[in-house]
Amino acid sequence: MNGKRVLLIVGGGIAAYKACELVRTLRKAGASVRCVLTAGGAQFITAMTLAALSEQPVHTNLFDLKDEAEMGHIQLSREADLVVVCPATADLLARMAAGIADDLATTLLLATDKPVLVVPAMNVRMWGHAATRRNVMQLRADGVSVMEPDEGPMACGEFGPGRLPEVDAIAAEISNHFTNGHRLAGKHVIVTAGPTHEPIDPVRYIANRSSGKQGFAIAGALAALGARVSLIAGPVALPTPAGVRRIDVETAREMAATVEAALPADAAVMVAAVADWRAEAATIKIKKQAGALPTLSLTENPDILAGLAHHPQRPGLLIGFAAETNDVLEHAIAKRQRKGCDWIVANDVSGDVMGGDANTIHIISANRTESWDRLPKDEVARKLAEKIADALQ
Ligand code: C5P
Questions:
Q1: CATH 3.40.50.1950: which residues of the chain?
Q2: Across residues 96-116, what is the average pLDDT?
Q3: Residue 244: pLDDT band by 50, 70, 90 thresholds?
Q4: Ligand 1 centroid to 345 CA: how many Å?
Q5: Which residue intervals of the chain bear CATH 3.40.50.10300?
Q6: Residue 305 Cα: closest atom of ligand 1
Q7: Residue 75 has what pLDDT?
Q8: pLDDT tops 60 at residue 353
Q9: Using one digit for the tens of pLDDT, what is the confidence trace for 122-134?
Q10: pLDDT attached to residue 138
């Protein structure tokens, strides 16, 4: 973290005292830290403590003439390499999500053009409340990184998720941001994820069991490496990963058109389980009639992956997925050639992979096969993003 500048916003919660330790840890690792203390934060620790630990003036008021004369609040928000909010209370998360700027901390957060990492800490029920869930989802959609709190006994006597993560874990997250956060900077990656729905009539559709989890995790992992990610998602109820531009679609043809519109891209990772066929959709609901079965007349959908492989703007690295239940490697090797993509990521879906959290993966390229056995989908995503970064460099 040598020479990196962190702007640390300390919110009002009992975990604020751990922010002092964070300042020390970051400084020991070579970073310089400037602190902003909210009015709530000042109920728990003093500006003096943070000033002594950071060896920098601590800012507390939005309308402080002395501060503004030395360094305006806009400049303060821009001169850091990373803005960290720790601890972030439920109230601070809500005000950030709403874009409120009624004190120095929230004004800086609205004015900054720098990456923001939020480290929440609050009572377990406040963390689990629908309003907080909504706010976290909104912040992630806005490109803010929100760390997951730890689970365990809390200062308020309750138990559950909501504890501030250990200071070392926060420092590791910050360090990771500085070391890996730029590997894919300037690269645009398209990711498709989830199933597609093909309507039969206005109320019925053909679908498949894809949960979208693996594709969403890959989009998030690519964004964490600094890529500009366009995530083109079929109908799934998953939160948008931090820093990812998400476009929701329903049918295969919408997905194909949206992928086309998102070009050019340096890489494309086609994780979606695109429906192979669509039905001739009725414009009004098909009525059930005793003894009479409707017939579905199916038409083949466009193959988005194969289409991209032969596109004049073909992404430099084109990656397909293959979900197989048997003869996984043979099928995947044949599929790579048939589709004209660079890598096929084959996964064995004979067990509980669909909708589950773990995946066994084989990555097949022109001259080699690499296998990762039963990894969590997040880990598969992280490793794949690293491999993509290696390939694009
Ligand atoms: O042909 P199959 O569905 O087995 O191939 C899977 C791979 O092809 C996945 O990467 C999937 O996203 C992609 N695909 C596609 N468009 C289709 C069908 C599959 O992009 N219509």
A1: 5-180
A2: 94
A3: confident
A4: 11
A5: 188-392
A6: 20
A7: 85
A8: no
A9: 999 999 999 999 9
A10: 87
- Give residue 244 CA to ligand 1 midpoint distance, Å: 22
- Which sign, positive or negative, has the C-alpha torsion 158, 159, 162, 163? positive
Q: Kindly state the greatest CA–CA separation across the chain.
A: 84
210 lines ligand 1 (CB under 6 A): no
Q: Is 322 in the pocket of ligand 1 (CB under 6 A)?
A: yes
Q: Are 207 and 234 in contact (CB under 8 A)?
A: no
Residue 8 has pLDDT above 90, yes or no: yes
Is the C-beta atom of 321 inside 6 A of ligand 1?
yes
pLDDT of residue 356: 65
Give residue 171 CA to ligand 1 midpoint distance, Å: 40
Burial 68-101 (b: 16+ CB within 10 A, else e): eeeeebeebbeebbbbbbbbbbbbbbbbbbeeeb
The yes-or-no verdict on residue 325 having pLDDT over 80 is yes
pLDDT digits (tens, 9 = 90+) for 52-96: 999 999 999 888 766 776 667 788 888 899 999 999 999 999 999
Asked about 156 being catalytic, the answer comes back as: yes
CB-based contacts of 39, cutoff 8 Å, min separation 6: 12, 60, 103
> For residue 117, how far is its CA from the centre of ligand 1 (angstroms)?
35
Task: Mention every residue, 6+ apart, whose C-beta is less than 8 A from residue 338.
Answer: 306
Mutational test site, ligand 1, from 274, 301, 338, max ligand atoms within 8 Å of CB: 274
User: Domain 188-392 falls in which CATH fold?
Assistant: Rossmann fold (3.40.50)
Is the pLDDT score of 322 beyond 60? yes
Nearest CA to ligand 1 atom 9: 321
Per-residue tokens: 299:
């038409």
Mean pLDDT of the chain: 92
Return the HEC string of 206-270: ECCCCCCHHHHHHHHHHHHCCCEEEEEECCCCCCCCCCEEEEECCCHHHHHHHHHHHCCCCEEEE
Q: Give the model confidence (pLDDT) of 200-214 as tens digits.
A: 999 999 999 999 999
Catalytic residue among 20, 35, 86, 156: 156
**Position 378 pLDDT exceeds 80:** yes
Assigned architecture for domain 5-180: 3-Layer(aba) Sandwich (3.40)
- Residue 55's Cβ-count burial label (10 Å; 0-12, 13-18, 19+) is exposed
303 touches ligand 1 (CB under 6 Å): yes
